[in-house]
Amino acid sequence: MSLDKVKATVLGEAKVRAEEKLGEARREAERILAAGGAEDERASAEALRDAALRLEREAIRERERIQYENRLQILSAKNKVVDEAFRRARDRLASLPESEYFRMIGAWLQALPPETGGELRVNPGEADKFSARLGEFNLGRAGSGVFSGAVADPGVQSGAIIKGSDYHIDCTVGRRLEELRETAIADLARKLFGA
């Protein structure tokens, strides 16, 4: 065999092996690219799923925040309606004719235990009127249960505060409305709002 033939045979075999190696390298590169692509697809799918979950959680939080704010606004509106109802009640009580006003205060005073007496602290503009009605207010009361007199107190807007030796009882219109509001708020809300 001549050198040229050996060279050609070796080169031919080398070329075949090189083509085989090149084919194997191409197949390996394609496999790596395919695996990398699949890995990229998996990573992309996971990132997409994580982003979707994050957005869903944010949407839930935002919806809850909006619902909370809506409940606060509804509650605020309901409170304004209730406040307005009590403001009107206060205005109506303030505009009662004098005889009805003192009849109401007298009923509150008569409802106190019979041994609960003392001075009546009243609005300065009403002190003389309370003093003139002490006889009515003291009907059926005796001893420590007698109201001793009406004392002008600029801190009292309407009604009276009974000041005993070791107690005071708030029978002002403002306090009575507060008590009414506290006890009647649930019933009032049911009537006004169907809640």
Description:
This protein has 195 residues and is α+β, with helices and mostly antiparallel strands. The chain has two domains: 1-95; 98-193, 2-Layer Sandwich (hypothetical protein PF0899 fold), CATH 3.30.2320.30. The protein has five helices and four strands; from the N terminus they run ααβααβββα. A four-stranded mixed β-sheet has the order 2-1-3-4. A hairpin with a 4-residue loop joins β3 and β4. It is rod-shaped, with a radius of gyration of 46 Å. The mean pLDDT is 78.
Beta-strand content bin: 5-15%
Shape: rod-shaped
Provide the CATH architecture of the largest domain: 2-Layer Sandwich
Largest sheet: 4 strands, mixed
Number of helices: 5
Q: Report, as a whole number of angstroms, the end-to-end distance.
A: 110 Å
CATH class of the largest domain: Alpha Beta
Summarize the structure.
The chain has 195 residues and is of the alpha+beta class. Helix content is 70%, strand content 11%.
Draw up the topology in text:
Layout lengths: L2 H92 L3 H13 L7 E5 L4 H6 L1 H4 L9 E6 L6 E5 L4 E5 H21 L2
Parallel strand pairs: 1-2
Antiparallel strand pairs: 1-3, 3-4
Tag the structure with descriptive keywords.
single chain, 5 helices, 4-stranded mixed β-sheet, hypothetical protein PF0899 fold, alpha+beta, 2 domains, rod-shaped, 195 residues
